């Protein structure tokens, strides 16, 4: 039997079907790209909102600090005027010194430390997407004495449910002289406390960190692990993600838990 040769109409139909298949594939690719871009846009929008919130907080906080400083200087000036009047006679000076000695005798130093999380969440669009957490972890010396060798521990539970990233270096820079002084006041980098930090993260889900150039936390001083990011995914055997924070120093070797934790119920 003689095989029929494809006609021009049949060739045209085959080409049309091939084009349809190609266009469907292109549409599917563009849909995937669009979904990825939408997710990235959500991330950047959340980062922008978080940074704007931080900027507003910093500006407001600075204004409040200046107002408090002005009020403190005014009170100090008033106290100088009162002291000048009291110094007119030797008796008032003796009474003043006696009062100061008594007051110093009864006052006790306060060694106190606290910490807390500030954070925002980007919830996943589907069960396969990752949950993103952005934030800061803050140490606050609320006592009257300096604290030495500060460090933090951020623990993720379940162990393999999340990964922490931020301004962490694994190779601390060695600086001397003026360069060291400049770095001590300006750097916000942190480094791992232990050499086997990978093993500790893998086995315990714990990130032990210390500041590179900040060995002392003065009274009323804050120390922050800025702009950390945690990428987390739901595990089969757990229904909640928990991020715990702890702070340590030479004065508190056993550690102090943070005032709040990050808890996400899946």
Describe the structure.
Keywords: Coiled coil. The protein has 266 residues and is of the alpha+beta class. 15% of the residues are buried. The protein has helices spanning 8-86, 90-106, 177-186, 197-204, and strands at 113-122, 131-141, 147-148, 151-157, 162-165, 168-169, 190-192, 206-211, 216-217, 222-232, 240-248, 256-257, 262-265. Helix content is 43%, strand content 27%. The protein has 2 domains: 8-107; 113-265, Immunoglobulins (Immunoglobulin-like), CATH 2.60.40.10.
Query: Any idea how many domains?
Result: 2
How much helical structure, as a percent, in the residues? 40-55%
Count of helix runs: 4
Largest sheet: 7 strands, mixed
Structural class: alpha+beta
**Mean pLDDT across every amino acid position:** 80
CATH class placement of the largest domain: Mainly Beta
Corresponding CATH superfamily of the largest domain: Immunoglobulins
Global shape: elongated
Please state roughly what percent of the residues sit in beta strands, choosing from under 5%, 5-15%, 15-25%, 25-35%, 35-45% or over 45%: 25-35%
- Rg, Cα atoms, Å: 31 Å
List the secondary-structure elements in sequence, H or E: HHEEEEEEHEHEEEEEE
- Are there runs of 5+ residues with pLDDT below 50, and where? 175-186
CATH architectural designation of the largest domain: Sandwich
**Total strands:** 13
Question: CATH topology of the largest domain, which one?
Answer: Immunoglobulin-like
- Quaternary state, please? single chain
How far apart the termini lie comes to 68 Å
Keywords: Coiled coil
Coiled coil: 20-104
